[in-house]
Amino acid sequence: MSEERFEGTKLALFLGARLAVIERDHAPDIPWPGYLDLPGGGREGNESAAACVLRETREELGLVLAPGALRWRRFYAGPTRMWFFAAHCEAALADEVVFGDEGQGWCLMRPEDYVAHDKAVPHFAQRVAAYLAG
């Protein structure tokens, strides 16, 4: 997959056994307002997929992850051209979260609860389920 041709990234960030989840703003002009999202977002300039997802995680949750924390990645072509990553960190890292200015708040959820939640962004829930299935 071409690293140069993608629009954004998302991260299934496991803090211990739970998944970091962000409640999207309720603004009607954004996709999936009020839904449960994952850290990540749009690419800036020519940054790599890893640099994009690490920057977005820092901006949204205040967490500075090392590139080596990204254990898994897969490219998805729709609905946008996006790299989806997974990282597993210690549960104690949740104490270091400083929530940014995008979204209504954040929480930790059991990944299976996120996948089944009626307010999870559907294509991200499917990707988490695919990751969990191996």
UniProtKB/TrEMBL annotation:
Cofactor entry: Mg(2+)
Segment forming the signal sequence: none
Keywords noted in UniProt: Hydrolase
Gene3D superfamilies: Nucleoside Triphosphate Pyrophosphohydrolase
UniProt xrefs under InterPro entries: NUDIX_hydrolase-like_dom_sf (IPR015797), NUDIX_hydrolase_CS (IPR020084), NUDIX_hydrolase_dom (IPR000086)
Record GO terms (molecular function): hydrolase activity
Pfam families hit by this protein: NUDIX
CDD domains with a match to the protein in the record: NUDIX_Hydrolase
Start and end residues of each Nudix hydrolase domain: 4-134
SUPFAM superfamilies with a match to the protein in the record: Nudix
Highest taxon above the source species: Bacteria
Name assigned to this protein: DNA mismatch repair protein MutT
